[in-house]
Amino acid sequence: MRIEKYNAARLGEFLDSEEYRTMPFIPVSPHRALSWLHNPRLDPGDVIMYLGYEQENMVAYRCIMPDRRDDIRFGWLSGIWVHPEYRRKGYASRLIKEARADWGQKLMVTDYAPEAKKLLDKSNQFELYSQSTGIRYYHRSTAANLLENRGKIYRRFRPLLKVADGMLNRVQDVRINFKKQDLKGIELQESQVMDHEAADFLEREGDTGFCIRSQEDFNWIVAYPWIKEGLFKDQRYFFSAYAPVFRNIILKIRSTGGEMTGLIWMVINGEKMTLPYAALSEGINHDISLILNHYINKYKISHLTAYHSGIIDLYKPSGILGSRKMTRNYLATGELLKKLPDQGKVNFQDGDGDVVFV
Questions:
Q1: How far apart are CA 259 and CA 249, in angstroms?
Q2: How far apart are CA 336 and CA 129, in angstroms?
Q3: What is the pLDDT of residues 205-236, one digit of tens each?
Q4: Labelling 93: which of 4, 5, 16, 166 has CA 20 to 30 A away?
């Protein structure tokens, strides 16, 4: 396998090339690539994409998102694909080996698929650094979408599943609306940027996360999303690039006197909601339930996933169908582990790593 490596300059040239426009499979969407190129933590020489070729055909790719903690630079493993005809032949392992060498053996990964975990274990280079426990709350039924890729039998019955979802959700909407409470007396301020006040509040509350992201970092994430709102789908790309609804909502919570008492960053991606960053002062209590339930009802969210302990302790969902515990592991190479602080001394936010984009 011939491996081609791309830093920022070469990636820009690649996106403008005839090869990118005509290749049957693409390793990155145009807007995700644009986000990579505007990453404040990117250095010009960083290798951020590896393409594997057999003859003139691209058969595998591996992507890296540059990051740092204080003065420790490292890369997040962020997306891998191997053509079905070339799987289980060592292509993915070869790309990881190249990335480890280029990044000085300093790599991290989180929120990986089970197949990726087998590959990481096989490399004998990644160890568990930290683990977060969370909860996924199911508010509405989406069985038709969840089971669509489970096999032919599920696809055959998808129309019936959609009808069942619709019937169940009509009942669920009535149930939720019956319990709905207004936000009277709660002062909220929505924004699509992280301004000085919000960034300072996160820093003051000690909730800038493991990556210690700055205001510039936060606004890069908002300005250059990996997912855009729309129904278009490029069949050549195998990762999420569009969603019917996509919103970044940075929500300030204020006391009756106008003082900022909380911040919740909500990402609405289709029918799901995540909370990549949150910081809460003491005394908010039931306000969190009212606020989250309001937005869940407004955007007809099917499920909310949260790992932030403060959110989980305070949130009382209204009329959910069920919930389940979630676990998110953060793996790091041995060389990086030697440089990172003891995991008990760091605080991971839900958006640390590349998961803030998805």
A1: 19
A2: 10
A3: 888 999 999 999 999 999 999 999 999 989 99
A4: 16
- Select from 79, 89, 87 the least CA-distant residue to 113: 79
281 contacts 205 by C-beta, under 8 angstroms: yes
Which amino acid, 276? P
- Between CA 78 and CA 57 the distance in angstroms is 22
Domains annotated on the chain, with CATH? 2-124 (3.40.630.30), 135-142+175-329 (3.40.630)
Give the 3-state secondary structure of residue 181: coil
pTM passes above 0.70: yes
**CA atoms of 54 and 83, how far apart (whole Å):** 11
Which of 7-11, 157-161, 171-175 shows the highest mean pLDDT? Answer: 7-11
In whole angstroms, give the CA distance from residue 269 to residue 253: 22
Q: Is 348 left (phi over 0), alpha (psi -120 to 50) or beta?
A: beta
pLDDT, one tens digit per residue, over 308-319 is: 999 999 999 877
What six digits make up the tokens of 69?
């903690």
Contact present, 276 and 267 (Cβ < 8 Å): yes
pLDDT of residue 180: 62
Tokens describing residue 213: 């992201």
Within 111-157, residue ranges assigned H as helices are 114-123, 143-146, 152-156
